[in-house]
Amino acid sequence: MAKKPDTILLGHGSGGQLMHDLISSLFMHYFSNPILDRHTDSALLKLGNDEIAFTTDAFVVDPIFFPGGDIGKLSVCGTVNDIAVSGAKPLYLSCSFIIEEGFPFSDLERIVKSMALEAKKAKVHIVTGDTKVVNKGKCDKIFITTTGIGSLDTRYKEISSGSGIKPGDQLIINGSIGDHGMAVMSARNELNLKASIDSDCASLNGLIEQALAVSDKIKFMRDATRGGLATILAELSANKEYGILINEEELLLNENVRGICELLGFDPLYVANEGKVLIVVDNADASRVLDALKAHELGKDSAIIGEVVSEHPGKSWINTAIGGKRIVDVLSGEQLPRIC
Amino acid sequence: MAKKPDTILLGHGSGGQLMHDLISSLFMHYFSNPILDRHTDSALLKLGNDEIAFTTDAFVVDPIFFPGGDIGKLSVCGTVNDIAVSGAKPLYLSCSFIIEEGFPFSDLERIVKSMALEAKKAKVHIVTGDTKVVNKGKCDKIFITTTGIGSLDTRYKEISSGSGIKPGDQLIINGSIGDHGMAVMSARNELNLKASIDSDCASLNGLIEQALAVSDKIKFMRDATRGGLATILAELSANKEYGILINEEELLLNENVRGICELLGFDPLYVANEGKVLIVVDNADASRVLDALKAHELGKDSAIIGEVVSEHPGKSWINTAIGGKRIVDVLSGEQLPRIC
Fold this sequence. Notes:
The structure is a homodimer. Chain A has helices at residues 17-31, 71-84, 105-122, 179-187, 205-214, 228-237, 255-264, 286-294, and strands at residues 43-47, 50-59, 65-66, 69-70, 88-100, 125-134, 142-152, 170-173, 218-223, 243-247, 277-281, 303-309, 316-319, 325-328.
């Protein structure tokens, strides 16, 4: 068991090392059961004759409205994506609101409209909910938890765990990195940044469906949210008999994102995305999956960014643009709180 | 559509009239779909060949530890009960935590242990979760959202809606009312009350299973949480061709609960319970269901408290202990914020 902290720190919600320690020392320890113990993002359940994926996420993003989205849209996309990357088809969502007394009704309506619109786009139904209101000052405007159910085709059961990954497999991502994190950052009033960056916040189930339709050799998928692409890479290679090698030159970075990252000292590899999926696919099907992704609105800028290698097992490395090589480790503290 | 308010009030989370207005004018309006539009507490879904119940609840109770329970235990019981009263068998829970920076790890561990213990008691598995941490002062200690999935025997599909209710049906409750609300109230430091009241916080699925096992004539069940027994009664009779008549003398009230209610001016009929279920059953099976409930630890004090009548259609009335009669209406404002 990891060392117990005295108090909860922002880093415990970062998606990085501290959060992993908290999950393993506390939640996995006390809640342990065969489904949870698989450590997949969505729980895969057998209900009668059907297999389903089940996942939950709390959204506490600050500010609640940002270029390219808002907490409502994000709460739908985030959960839809968690289901979709497990290989399941997202069907139903629940939503639970915690609202601060005095919150403007017009803002709530804007958020609810945005959720409804995104649910329609993603072809999911919001079927149940709950509302709690807390006294002024006891929460920050509004928090939303969405929970999703998707139906899982048993052919895709191993995608969550990535158990079929082997050297030679290719890594694909569907576009630029760091947009969501830097959009939220630049929308924070105190920074007074003029850069216009849109969050990439989007439901990826349609895109993922297109990829699955052309290949039965997709080994793993994960949306690169909290902790960014780096955290997925580090997790994916940890304790494995293979390594991962990424080519920085293949990573797409929007100019404004690069600018703000440099200004504020963020490494874009660790910055949250909300519309990016990392796909690991057998080399034989890589170009066919790449083409399928590129044919979709949300995958136009897809690229093969690296591959699974037999060198440096257990580690992810990146070939930097200037010719060096550096290791990709999980986030150790908190880079950017309340990003989702 | 109900008139739109300018801002969100505490009453919008009370379980009473304001919350109903918010749900219908906003959530039902924008999220409308055939499942949501059934207005049941749990959504009833068909997934492949299986029917499931799906429900979510946010828990923001203050204080987080109170006699008889804590926010963790409550977050398991509350969702287990919502599933169970729909006639379904609770199986899986997700949990999502929003934690304030600086929250003591020992308190979090106590809460997680309590959740694990209650999940074990209720025979459900916590299979997936999420953790967010917000800066100090941006939430009040800890909020937990649990979402549950249960499998639904199609024989019980109409229990959520109560569509089979007719005059002559009997109303049963499994014990005293008002305990949870007054336990939380008396635990609030500012009141300095010395009364010892334990919350009735408990998972009712075992009890409900025993009742369903002896009768196929259970027409409706609902746990009497926010808004208390009164709110269920008012909702149950609203716009119906039947009325409901309750006998106050049959309602069990613990002495300490009665005392605090009188002291603070609460009507116990509107005070939240977290371990009480109202069951409507055909007269022919009422005594058999009553006996089954009484045989269970959580139903020892069960009683028939009233019946469905053909008089005063659309309304619930109560015969008071002093010989009068008064109407039971839904809560119009906020009686007791952050009770669950």
